[in-house]
Amino acid sequence: MSWTMVLNAELGIVEGVYAGHISKQDGANSNAKMLAVAPKGNPLRVLLELRDVIAEYSITDLYWIAKTGESNSGDRMRRMAILVSDQVAITAKLDFFETTSFNRGSQVKVFTQRQDAIDWLLR
Question: Residue 22: what pLDDT?
Answer without folding.
Answer: 79
